């Protein structure tokens, strides 16, 4: 019972982050399932089955708050579903001993990407309104869907930064469109796992509590997406993912490193994580102060230029 409550809380927090940041639900929940010894393919299948419900709730919530660009959803979501189906089939064909370090490695790379991306660059806003081309969205969706299924997460960490980096769609619509299109990815990945594995290793009670926790968080996340600073949140989540998967890779299921080496690595990761969060917080405050300072200047120019 305690484990189910913990999973519900994790599902809630993961969806709260995902709905606010456009990533990290699958990466966070899969990392936890791997940490408690779940078979990699079963872990990814469990998360994607839960995501069918959470992404449906999240998409509906983002649509209600005007955070969805349906053209982007179609152009990236359909190729994403194809990639997810292929990724699920690939992961299911690997034996457990090979799959766990492979998945942890993918999750570690994604965590590093999220950490570095949001700590160093923040969000780009100078190209807003320019159209996103299908030849960009199609391959992006195909790749992100494949990574999502094989890594138990990755649709957001790959898709969201790429759209944000383009600077052609505002952040809230990037997050809403990625979350909404993820329904197609979760559905395709789940079908792929069920065809390849059946229901072997899937704990349906876990699916249910992850779904319930995520469903409760979805409308809250869609509302606060305008308020939460993505830069700081990205650094927090990225560091957590790196730390957890580094632990797996250094343990018996990975490289089985000496305890002294492990503690040195832990120390470096913690130091980098704390430094990243501190830097992101500082930069967020600086950017916010600059925006607030710019406002009065614009108002003053309008008053000077207006007729008496």
TrEMBL record:
Pfam families attached to this UniProt entry: TauE
Subcellular location: Cell membrane; Membrane
Keyword annotations of the record: Cell membrane, Membrane, Transmembrane, Transmembrane helix
UniProt membrane topology term: Multi-pass membrane protein
Name of the protein this chain belongs to: Probable membrane transporter protein
Matches recorded under InterPro entries: TM_pro_TauE-like, TSUP/Inactive_protease-like
Signal peptide: none
GO CC field: plasma membrane
UniProt source species: Janibacter melonis
